[in-house]
Amino acid sequence: MHSTALTPAVVPIMVSLKPATWPDLQPLAIESHWLRSAAMAPAHRLLVVYPHPDDETFSSGGTIARYSLGGVEVHYVCATRGECGTIEPRLRGEESAADLRTAELVCAAQTLGLTAIHFLGYRDSGMPGAVDAQHPDAFVAAPMERVTGQLVALIRAIRPQVVITFGPYGDYGHPDHIHIHETTRAAFTAAGNPEYSPRCAPAGLTPWAAAKLYYKTFDARPVRLAVTLLRLFGRDPRRFGENGDVDLLAVATQVTPPTCTIDVGPWLAVKDRAFWCHRTQLGSLARLQRLPRRLRRPFVAAESYTRAVPPVAPDDPRERDLFHGLALAPIPVGIIDQGGGCSAELV
């Protein structure tokens, strides 16, 4: 059920959680907010890179909760503040969309146990054809080299073994999702190249080659079934969604095959609370979230990814752990329930 304790709130900034060794990335227009103390030398580090507030929860909330609450240092890179998200007037109040969605993101991040959020400073571009894409700060208009440089700096500063982002089609064709895929893929390669140096990057950032790159994905069979049913009822599957701007035909054909499936069932309660943090963006999802968890579990108890680097061999078994095959100590298996409250500390 919806907990009223999850209204996003921002409390005074504190500086104690930021590592003393963290480099100054402000010349790269990167704004970092620390929510937990980073371990001095964490064995496992995971970097999640998406463009909007709510992508972290709707796409990978269970995965983030599983790893962060098990002791992994998990960072979230968010390219925009979600300015184009539709918000009902009764939920907005006097706040701008950017401020409200930032508060929602911090609420969800604290609930999921994220170590830090790193904003790249761009503006939401909206769906294909939106006038927002013409804004000078729109993420989709940001030069590839500039965004890649920001991401390289973050990869070198965080030094993750595993990086997650969207696939080539961006899940459902959102221009910002596609741009974050292209720039993250480029940065993943460039970060380990000693000859590559981002403009304005601080001194001391040494090359770092992350071991694995994953794309968020899903089973295409339900999408194909939806396409068939929509046609049977005389509806155009290329005009799906609340705003008719999602092409389910393209989604079904462009989705990458799952090669790693993460069991997030034990962490569903945490993910559910993070969902409610993004109250302005739930839309029709709110009705589904109110269903008993036992009814939703078969559909939401796993999150799938495609391993892009290193490539998957035809006879490779499906992975069940993003860190599988890496020479690291085992991740502790434990569920840490952080409770229903949500005070957001921006550090």
Quick structural overview:
This protein is α/β, with parallel strands linked by helices and 347 residues long. The chain is 32% helix and 15% strand. The strands form two sheets. Strands 2-5-4-3-6-7-9-8 form an eight-stranded mixed beta sheet, sandwiched between helices.
Secondary-structure topology with pairs:
Elements: E1 10-11, E2 31-34, E3 45-50, H1 55-68, E4 73-80, H2 89-92, H3 97-112, E5 116-122, H4 144-158, E6 162-166, H5 170-173, H6 175-190, E7 212-217, H7 221-232, H8 248-254, E8 260-263, H9 268-277, H10 285-289, H11 293-300, E9 302-309, E10 344-345
Parallel strand pairs: 1-10, 3-4, 3-6, 4-5, 6-7
Antiparallel strand pairs: 2-5, 7-9, 8-9
Helix pairs in contact: 1-3, 1-9, 3-9, 4-6, 7-8
Query: How many structural domains are formed by the residues?
Result: 2
Principal-axes geometry comes out as globular
**Overall mean confidence score, pLDDT:** 87
Q: How much helical structure, as a percent, in the residues?
A: 25-40%
Tell me the total number of β-strands. 10
Are there runs of 5+ residues with pLDDT below 50, and where?
A: 1-15, 335-347
* Element order: H for helix, E for strand: EEEHEHHEHEHHEHHEHHHEE
Count of runs of 4 or more consecutive helical residues: 11
Content of β-strand: 5-15%
Summarize the main sheet.
8 strands, mixed
What is the name of the CATH superfamily of the largest domain?
LmbE-like
CATH topology of the largest domain: Rossmann fold
Rounded to the nearest angstrom, the distance between the terminal CA atoms is 30 Å
Strand order in the largest sheet: 2-5-4-3-6-7-9-8
CATH architecture of the largest domain: 3-Layer(aba) Sandwich
As a whole number of angstroms, the C-alpha radius of gyration is 19 Å
In the CATH scheme, the class of the largest domain would be Alpha Beta
